[in-house]
Amino acid sequence: MNLKNVKSFLQYGYFMNYEKDDLPLEFSKIDKLIYTSLEENELVNLGIEKFIEAISKDFEYNYQHVVPLSGGLDSRAILAALLEFTDASNIFTYTFGTPGTLDYEIGGLIAKKAGTKHTNLPLTTHKYCQDELIDISNRINNQTMLFHHPPVWLVDELFSNHVVWSGYIGDLIVGGHLPTHPVTNLKDAKLKYLNKYKYVKSLSLSNIENDFLIDYINFNTIDKKLVTYEEQILFNERVRKLTAPHVLIKGYNYKTPFINNGFMDFMLSLDNRFRLGKYLFIEMMLKAFPKLFSQKTKNNYGLPLKSGNIKIEVKKIENKIKSFLGRSLNGFVNPYINYLDFRNGIREREDLLSIFSSNIMDLKSRGIIDWIDIEDILNRHLKKQGNFADALIVLTSLEIHLKAQTGWKTK
């Protein structure tokens, strides 16, 4: 295995030397002049029409439909639009993660408000096993970090015959990553990306400088007046190499209504002031689907979208206090936890401790990583001499990918 590519995985949580493009994006229909004569209210109405049309084209009768829900806006938008075509009783939803966190609780709240057939999949009671992780590795092309999926085998049992509606890169399409002040040259955009999107932050696991990997970010650019360089890198680097294999795990019939359609063309053709901060998309959703979009969101720290700045600041402080208590007192849950509290889980859960310990020792025995003592990282974490969960996740994921690539079987 290419050592440089291994180091990219250890730093960013995915292999940067990756050629596959399973879901190419089409940018040829972007036209920054086409909507310049329209007023904001006209753009809102047209955007609603385009989004409903995208759902309509993908909707198939006589199928069972499932929408994975989180605390964000993309999955909520899909669910709200689906309700224009079928009753809530015909739609399945599920939420996974840690009870008490924003993603988990808000997703459940939205399902309840909509009246769907909802299933909670708490990772706090899910038992991780090596065989399932090997299977997941193969279904994501052995490409990205593990432990950030729902209980896949259970989801297989529940929904493998359903149409799965994914909010895949919706946030990026509608402007969630549009920079306020875009850079003017590609190299600066690449360095900005490499600085911003490191997965392992607890220590220097890969022992490299950013410019060591810059040549991996290589693609055919388009005019930065159409799409900023920062967003082009996200589309061509992060989405293709990380998001696509990770989110669109093999084994399901996906619908991805945010991409490669009239809605995507519309959003990317807008003047950037309408995409900044997802402004127009939020206005569209509030007008089209007020019932669901008047509810809490993760985006506003658990407050509705139109909450005032003072309320948002108070809520932000409240959540920070909860986050601190979650670190220092038993029984409190950090509302910002994504997926699972791996810091404590690796130390306290038998399933996680066994998987992490055995795989890290197996990885050490390979002799691939000889510039840092990975067993020492594990021991320091277990002794509470630091929180190295991010490093342990990529190290364990790397070993599981290596096992999967060689046809590893349970002993």
Question: Can you describe this structure?
Answer:
This is asparagine synthase (glutamine-hydrolyzing). InterPro entries: Asn_synthase (IPR001962), ASN_synthetase/amidase (IPR051786), Rossmann-like_a/b/a_fold (IPR014729). It catalyses: L-aspartate + L-glutamine + ATP + H2O = L-asparagine + L-glutamate + AMP + diphosphate + H(+). Keywords: Amino-acid biosynthesis, Asparagine biosynthesis. By secondary structure, this protein is mainly alpha-helical. It has a single domain, classed as 3-Layer(aba) Sandwich (Rossmann fold), CATH 3.40.50. 48% of the residues lie in helices and 6% in strands. It has helices at residues 3-12, 40-58, 74-82, 102-114, 130-139, 152-159, 170-173, 186-196, 229-247, 262-269, 272-275, 279-288, 290-293, 309-328, 342-348, 350-366, 374-382, 389-405; strands at residues 65-68, 91-97, 117-122, 163-165, 253-255. Strands 3-2-1-4-5 form a five-stranded parallel sheet, covered by helices on one side.
Number of strands: 5
Count of helix runs? 18
Percent in strands:
5-15%
Oligomer: single chain
Helix content: 40-55%
CATH architecture field: 3-Layer(aba) Sandwich
Overall body shape: globular
Structural class, from secondary structure content? Answer: mainly alpha
Unreliable spans are none
The strand line-up of the biggest sheet is 3-2-1-4-5
Q: Write the H/E string, N to C.
A: HHEHEHEHHEHHHEHHHHHHHHH
* Computed Rg: 22 Å
Give average pLDDT, whole number.
94
**Major sheet: size, sense and barrel closure?**
5 strands, parallel
Q: In total, how many domains does the architecture comprise? A: 1
Q: What do we call the CATH topology?
A: Rossmann fold
The CATH class label is: Alpha Beta
Give the N-to-C terminal Cα separation: 24 Å
